[in-house]
Specification:
The complex is a heterodimer of chains A (about 140) and B (about 140). With about 140 residues, chain A is mostly helical. Helices cover about 85% and strands about 0% of the residues of chain A. Chain A contains five helices and no strands. In chain B, strand 2 and strand 3 form a beta hairpin. Classes of the chains: A mainly alpha (about 140), B alpha+beta (about 140).
């Protein structure tokens, strides 16, 4: 089984490669539309698979392990958001709105996932744990 | 396993169902479809664990919005509390990711509020019991 870290790093590389294709496409014209779509659509699909894989996997991890994968997720998010910026600037990419919107949704999904891990799973929360602890005694 | 709800969930559901044109009309059906055949372990294994202490697990469930043909990534978020001791799943909050009432995240403060409401309503025995196989119809508690 591939480790969570490997999955995240390898997917980040795919996002970086797509950036190069989109940047090249932005410099040229309509004949590159299909090339951009072919770069973005598989990434969107892979994003969905990755998040659906990570959500149950992280349920079994302790805070130490969560803290060790958070920097990798943030790097992936940073790469993905750069691609979003490039796509938003690209006049060519604007002509494949459905594809780009689907990709933006997946990046937002990753942001939500990171937010939840950072806020609820990566450290102790005495107040939240206190309420849950009290509920256990009901 | 029983499905119960707090007032915070019922208020959120009522808001989403208030106007048909908002596009949230499938939320009850989508909740039932996602949860009706699952046990405690399956719910935990398929969805995001927010926090766990003793017999209690707070879980975020990602749901599709079948009416708008939105996948679970863009549909609804349902916050539930799985209580092994009482063998129930408490529906605490529902919000959409798209449209008029869309919300990005819940803050820690909002989670604390939801748990406090649950605590108060369990103590006051004012929680409602639902039939997950019948559109969350309210049923008499045993």
């Amino acid at each position: 089984m591939v480790a969570i870290e490997d999955k995240i790093i390898s997917f980040q590389k795919e996002n970086e490669e797509a950036q190069q294709v989109v940047q090249l496409g932005s410099d040229e014209h309509l004949d590159l539309l299909l090339q951009i779509k072919k770069a973005v659509d598989p990434l969107t699909a892979r994003f969905d698979v990755l998040i659906n894989d990570l959500i149950p996997s992280t349920s079994r991890l302790d805070s130490e392990k969560i803290n060790s994968i958070l920097p990798l997720l943030l790097d992936l998010y940073s790469t993905a958001i750069k691609l979003v910026a490039i796509l938003k600037r690209s006049r060519i990419a604007n002509q494949i709105k459905s594809s780009t919107q689907d990709y933006y949704s997946q990046v937002e999904n990753l942001r939500e996932f990171i937010y939840d891990l950072e806020n609820f799973r990566s450290n102790e929360d005495n107040e939240l744990d206190g309420i849950l602890g009290e509920l256990n005694t009901l | 396993m029983q499905f119960i709800s707090t007032s915070s969930f019922r208020e959120a559901k009522s808001l989403l169902l208030k106007r048909k044109e908002n596009g949230y009309n499938s939320c009850v059906k989508d909740i039932c479809e996602a949860l009706k055949d699952l046990d405690f372990e399956s719910i935990n294994n398929l969805h995001f664990l927010v926090r766990e202490i003793g017999d209690l697990r707070v879980i975020k469930v990602r749901l599709q919005n079948s009416e708008q043909n939105l996948s679970s990534s863009q549909g609804f978020r349902l916050i539930i509390l799985c209580n092994r001791k009482y063998s129930h799943v408490a529906l605490l909050k529902l919000y959409p990711k798209r449209g008029k009432y869309s919300k990005s995240d819940l803050t820690k403060h909002e989670y604390k509020e939801l748990l406090t409401i649950y605590s108060n309503e369990v103590k006051a025995k004012s929680i409602k019991v639902h039939d997950i196989k019948n559109d969350l119809r309210e049923v008499e508690s045993n």
